[in-house]
């Protein structure tokens, strides 16, 4: 799997799925429509400020709340390349891999500042803050889950296996 590199946008702890994509937008499952409103209640200008390939770094328990798959779908469709946090809600963790959104558990994520540029090497389990030149280790993602991410999620993986 290739490296992921992008500019950091910071959010706090306990970012729930309602902050990621508000319930008022769940009348559609069209990814491009959801993307227009990602993180809107946490930062109304987020989608206008961020660029495709940027990375969210947050505090503990990212993705808590309801189990909606819309949250990782909206983040991915908006162009968020990855999410880094010390911990994730378990169902969000699984939904993210199923939808093809890379997420990384990093206890030291608070040391990374908004605007920093970070690079993630999924094979070695390293996140390098290019701005501060500091490297952090995380538990590498198992090969099967990396394969899910590389093909775009569980459904695309299943399609590949069937064909």
Can you put this structure into words, describing what you see?
The two termini are 22 Å apart. The mean pLDDT is 94. The chain has one domain (4-162): Aconitase, domain 4 (Alpha-Beta Barrel). It contains seven helices and seven strands. With 163 residues, it is of the alpha/beta class. It is globular. It is 31% helix and 18% strand.
Short précis:
By secondary structure, the protein is an alpha/beta fold. The protein has helices at residues 17-20, 31-35, 46-49, 70-78, 90-99, 143-151, 154-162; strands spanning 4-10, 55-57, 82-85, 103-105, 117-121, 126-129, 134-137. It contains 7 helices and 7 strands, in the order E-H-H-H-E-H-E-H-E-E-E-E-H-H.
Features:
globular; alpha/beta; single chain; 7 helices; Aconitase, domain 4; 7-stranded mixed β-sheet; 163 residues
* Helix count, DSSP H or I runs of 4 or more residues: 7
**Distance between the first and last residues' Cα:** 22 Å
Shape: globular
The major pleated sheet works out as:
7 strands, mixed
Strand content: 15-25%
Uncertain segments of ≥5 residues (pLDDT<50)?
none
Report the CATH superfamily. Aconitase, domain 4
What's the CATH first level? Alpha Beta
